[in-house]
Specification:
The chain is of the alpha+beta class. It has 15 helices and 15 strands. It is about 40% helix and about 20% strand.
Length: about 375
């Protein structure tokens, strides 16, 4: 993976790319590049194109990153500079211009070019467009930091309260992290234009994009996922987990299919899935769960941070009745079984776990998204 160039390296490489590009255009005879300095302001450099159709001047504004916020900043600067040029064409240059940033440029009639080979230039009889080239400078270091336990706490708070506006200290207290960490997360989200800031308060503008990136950035769950078989039905398994955790002094909450079945319709409940903040192997041995061949009906997730329990809620008895198979039991036994109190994690955490941690195949995650999460946004 290529190292992201500095500002000076970017300008040097951009000049070379522009010369090579326009030397292939038939009606252009000369490409002259010069640094433009107007009272300490103005574009980074200008490109004068001369040929049989006359002359044109490209105003080049660069940024060391092509994320949406920086692209919008460059576009606004170029639109102001355009007022001083009668034949100027604004062009944004960056090491790599993201699809979202490219759309910002096109919507404002600003051309763009990056060092990956993506390009959009449209003026006079010239139209050049190349897209889909991958990012050779791609570094997901910042985005990967969203999946660190403390950063995830901030993400959960924002996604679970998507309509709320937050001050930094309020958000830090709610997420139980430092204000400095909140500021770091804010910078990442601001550059992606997933949040907006007004009067020192932030709010989410694109929660779905943040949720998808959080899922994409999730680390391999690895040894945190423990699968077993148990000789009980689902309510019996849930009750056994709750009772054993209570005796062992452990915190537990159900997720995945075990959470979605209480929130959305059309959920195929085929496996009990729960978080515990202790050793799953010890709990499994105490409750009679075994590791056997075949399809397991129990999955215990070992928490790496207490933040997974943010937004947990208690399940109402009525929601447990839907899969209790009362025809196979007496009314009294069903009433006794559903009386055990249990918690499920937040809908956001359930959706994340179905896709990123449990990697559950099926429509359950999308049903939860459409029926529960989207309406809350």
């Amino acid at each position: 993976m290529t190292k992201t160039p500095s500002k000076d390296q970017l300008l040097e490489k951009a000049c070379t790319e522009i010369k090579n590009l326009f030397q292939q255009v038939g009606w252009i005879d000369e490409v002259a590049i010069q640094q433009e300095i107007r009272r300490g302001d103005g574009p980074d450099f200008v490109v004068e194109l001369t040929g049989r159709e006359g002359s044109r001047v490209l105003l080049i504004e660069s940024r060391v990153s092509g994320e949406p916020r920086l692209a919008r900043e460059a576009v606004n600067s170029l639109l102001l500079e355009m007022k001083l040029w009668s034949r100027g064409c604004p062009v944004f240059v960056a090491p790599y211009i993201s699809p979202e940033a490219a759309e910002i440029c096109r919507a404002n009639k600003v051309g763009y070019l990056d060092l990956a080979g993506n390009c959009y230039l449209a003026f006079d009889s010239l139209f050049i467009r190349t897209q889909g080239r991958p990012n050779p400078f791609k570094s997901r270091r910042n985005l990967k930091s969203l999946s660190k336990p403390k950063s995830e706490r901030v993400i959960r708070v924002l996604l679970n309260n998507a309509r709320r506006q937050w001050q930094t200290l309020e958000l830090a207290r709610e997420a139980e992290v430092s204000p400095g960490l909140v500021s770091n997360v804010k910078k990442i989200l601001r550059d992606k234009e997933w949040i907006e800031e007004k009067k020192r308060r932030i709010c989410l503008t694109r929660p779905r994009s943040l949720l998808e990136e959080w899922i994409r950035s999730a680390p391999d769950p690895g040894e945190a996922v423990h699968s077993y078989t148990a000789p009980f039905d689902f309510i019996g398994i849930e009750n056994a987990i709750v009772e054993r955790c209570r005796k062992m002094g452990l915190h537990c909450a159900f997720t995945g299919l075990s959470g979605a079945v209480h929130l959305a319709s059309g959920i195929d409940y085929r496996q009990v899935q729960a978080y515990i903040d202790g050793d799953p192997e010890i709990l499994a041995a105490e409750t009679g769960f075994e590791k056997k061949g075949g399809e397991p009906n129990v999955v215990l997730l070992q928490t790496r941070d207490e933040g997974v329990f943010y937004g947990s809620r208690q399940v109402m008895p009525a929601s447990r009745l839907q899969y209790s198979r009362p025809a196979e039991k007496t009314v009294q036994s069903v009433e006794e079984e559903i009386r055990t109190r249990l918690q499920i994690v937040s809908p956001i955490q359930i959706y994340h776990d179905l896709r990123a941690t449990l990697r559950q195949q099926g429509p359950e995650a999308e049903r939860l998204l459409e029926q529960v999460i989207n309406p809350s946004w």
